[in-house]
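Researcher: Go.
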Amino acid sequence: EKGSLENINSINTSGFEFDNSYGIKFSHKEKIGWYVKYQHLSTGGAKYPQGLYNLIFNGNQSISQSIDLTQTAFHFRKHQIIHFGFLKKKLSIGLALGNILNEYQGSLADGDYISFQNPYIWEVSSNPNIILLNNKTNSLFKNGNSIGLDFKYKGDILKNNSSYLDYTIEIQNLGIMYFHDEFSQLNNDTSFTYSGLSIEEIINFENTLDNLNNSISPNYNLENMVQISPFILNGELNLKLEKTNFSAGLFHRFNSNYIPKTFVGIDKQINKKINLGTNISYGGYNEFQIIGKLKIDFKKSQFQLNLLNIPALIPSMGKSLGLNLYMQWQIN
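Model: Structure:
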């Protein structure tokens, strides 16, 4: 179970990210360089009250008060994004152009709720706002596109032979999403009282389903829509003392049911090739996390493996586990 059965209106957050990226970078100490990167980004997230989770997985027998649905929201998306731009020394700046393959998002209105007069009579007050944008599988031109700004700057605060203190500020894909006029939208008032199905409705179940579908089916939208893109904001502070590096920062993915994440970490250079570290964070989709990191350098290539939510290796201590793999090659 996720959360306590007692506090049914506490808010939970769940989600996932799959980021598959390939890129190439050409840089020079004095001249302006350039970069290009292809990114296939899939994310999904949801905010929901504990009572809604209990209702779905445990039933309503133990629920005696209304479930507040005000903050309930979700999203699922698949985007293809091309990043390209220029870089010089500590600064890089460029554009992000995207094809939107899928974009599903929704939220409920203030005051929406579910209450139970008894286990068999449900009173539902709901005003959902849901957008469904599907992929055009055989078309180069998709139902949605995006354009955004990429920016990264790395600056020094203190620096000497064996130690330094620096910072990084990064923004990815700050811009807009543009939905063309081929998406569906559901924003109907679906308030109703449910007390089961009559014998006639059960006998004519096909007609019952058709009536239900007609009452809640989304409308086909004939107008374009513009939204803020799901951009990333990242800020990090690093202190290196000989072979040990300390870090702290803030990371947030906007428009994604994401909790702003703060983190602190430590890395140790074991030898010329191996670096080990750990990171403790709060926020994101899973709130509290402990991360283990392994970085290996081979001449002109670098590999980094991150093990997310280490306590979940013991089943009784966690509900989620993840891996990140980064690979980088230097060509010159």
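Model: The longest helix spans residues 205-216.
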